[in-house]
Amino acid sequence: MSTEFPLSDEAQHLSQIPMFRQLDNVELENLAEGVDQVTYKAGETVFHEHDHGDALYVVESGSIRIWVRDEDTQEITLSELKPGEFFGELSVFDGGERSANATATVDTVLHRLSREDFQKFLVKYPDAAVDVIREIGARMRQTNALVSQRVTRNINREMDEKMTFGQRIADKVASFGGSWAFIGLYSGALLIWMTVNSLILSRMGKGPDGAQWDPYPYILLNLMLSMTAALQAPIIMMSQNRAGEKDRLAAEQDFKVNLKSELMLEELIRKDRAREAQLDQLLRAFNSQQDPAGGLTRP
Amino acid sequence: MDSDPTTERLRSLIAKITYLTTKGEIQWERQLDSAHRYARWNNNLLILGPDVSSADHRTPRYLFITPFDSPDCIEISSDRADLGAAVLALVGAVESVTAQTPPSDPFSITPELIDRLTQ
Which of A111, A116, B27, B88 could disulfide-link A58, Cβ–Cβ 3.0 to 4.6 Å? Predict the structure, then answer.
């Protein structure tokens, strides 16, 4: 149901946000009463990871970066939120701590909706709750993709994804050809072949003209063995080429990761030394103004 | 041939790196017995690979760019139809500027290292 009276500025802003578009003017005005408009300068933090979460935010203008620090204390950007998008919903749902940091990347205006008001809103408008759940799902997928990208490339998986049918067959043949099962089966087949020809067909399997199927020294068997070996060799070589390519890619990947780690460590050590020198300088300056007996020393 | 904005930005990035390389503003390094070339630029690590001689034209070359303060990375291969020529131009530029540069040997036994260990 829609009413004709003009909307307040706050309600006008809220009506532009996808999550609130289904609300009529009265409902928008009611919602606007519980919403605070807050402004952040570029670089200002909206909240930190582990802060108590008591409100949901919707971006009115500007941009918000959602980020965490990984084990290496590197900042990982999870998402950049643009006008109309919301954040801070997880803590609002479970009442727990913030799971990430939120920082304004440019001067930004946000709508802040308290936990209680947001929950009342969702209960009253289940369609909006579905939108929120859909958005949370999309963000989880995005985060998963980021995490899997963060992990060092899995060369085995990449190679497997690019494998052709012929290469798969070659790998299977090479794998089976290099197993005890193959040796056992092959030896068994040879023994059976030789036993049948030497003991059974030599007595009972002769044709009318006295000819026998592959008698000693088993020329047909030798021919088949030669053919098997001739086919098996290139198939195994195909598989080995692929294994060699996989090793080469893995070595390339190791080189990239090792080089980056080495150069980062060099840089960290250089910075650490520079800071030590600064600290020494500061301590000397401080001590020179103190009584020698009461001066500070570095631990 | 039309190309998307991302490709265009990557093309201009490679062109910029090539230009800075020829001007000597990006210092490419190489290690003994390695075909890789690497450089630091604006807090990014640039790597040209793979570890096969540039005379081997069958193996595609790649340019790998990764910021030191982020796990993100870009890898552009010379077998890409749209950017391959730009990568190969960069490879040529880097090869020519590093031809006279002595390779570093991270495993060399230097008098300085022995002095440091025996102090």
Answer: A111
